[in-house]
Structures are given as C-alpha cells and as structure tokens.
Fold this protein.
Amino acid sequence: MTLEIKYLGHSAFQFKVAGKEILVDPFLSQSPWYQGDLSEFVPEHIFVTHAHSDHLGDAIEISKRTGAIIHTIFELATYCASKGAKVNPVNVGGRLEFEWGIVTFMSAAHSSTTFDGVNGGVASSIMFRFKDKRVFHAGDTALTADLKMIGEVYKPEIVLLPIGGHYTMGIKEAVLAAKWLNAKQCIPMHYNTFPQIAVDINDFRTLLESESMIKPLILKPGEVVAHKI
C-alpha cells in the first residue's frame, strides 16, 4: 500500500491512501499557490487545525459539495455545521479510527478565530497514523515543550512544520522542533505566502542538515511524495 502526500501550498495537504482522499487545512481558492479548480477535490474527510481563514479555507464549501466530513475542534465544528457542512466535533486528545488509520488531535500554541470573529475554540495539531507510517501536521504553533512529548510518545516519522515566523515559529525554532520530534523527514510549510512570513528556504535546508540527521523534504505546491506503508 502507498501513502501519497501532495503539498497544495501554505499549510494545505492532500493525502491519498487505500483509495481514499483526505484534505488538511484546505486554503486553496484564496491562496496564491493554488491555480486549479476545486472540483478536482472529492475527499471523504477534511481535517482542520484551527479557524483562521488560511487554514479553514475552502473546507466548508468542499464539504457541502462532496459530503466530506470536517473533523475539527468542537467550537469550529459547530461553526462549520451552522454553514451547512457535515462535521465531526473533536477536541485535543481525541482519537479517531478509520479503515485507513488513526488520527489524534494534539495541542498547538496559537489563536483560533474565524474571519467573521467567531471563537473557534483552541488551535490544534494533528497526528496521522497510516498503518506504521506516522505523519504529524503541526498546524500553526509556537515552539513548545509539548513537541518533545509528541516526539517521545507518538514518534512521528514525517513532520509538517511552519517555518515562516511572525505568526508561528520561525526557521530556527522549527529545526529544534524537528529534532524534539525525532523525525526522519521534515516538510516545511506556512512560509512565503504573505510578506510577513517570507523566508529563504535554503536557510532552513542548510540549518536542518547541519544540525541534525533529519532529511529536509522541500516540496513545491503540486508536488507529491509517495511512501510505502
């Protein structure tokens, strides 16, 4: 079986496994990185880390069109349901089981409010386990000691970390987070979308390679990596 990870730009990803399509933080139609048609996405499940528009993105619209379930923190799920989306409310620590794997909602140090000012509850990160392949999407977060715990307990192999600074941790903190998480590969995200989060991606590559054995996996929007699981 193969797990395909497609980077859609910013913090948006598409996973494909066992014939299933999964979206995470689908900020697409308003993203400068995505130039396609939303009709290409027919997921069964959508996972959203928090309420900010560059993460909630098109989740509600895609759910209403396809019937996909939005899995997210209770308050944000309630908001999405009020807009007509199909939802599964969860909270930090919640574990969900699917035929293709296990998903656990984890903590993140960030705020969470919708564009129209509705409280989205707490921000989260998400651990995905596809058979024995563990993928951690950090959402938006500062560097916190919780990342050490996640590394020790959940042992992610592939970590998706924000590196843009200003709204989240920056490059130096992300390199340390990758080390704390004991990852084998790190995919950077949440950078170069807006002027406030502009970075030189080569700085991240150089620092991660010089300070760890973790492989930087820098994807351009639209690129796919595949892993046997």
Summary: The chain has a mean pLDDT of 97. Helices lie at 53-56, 59-66, 74-82, 146-153, 171-180, 201-211. The longest strand covers residues 2-9.
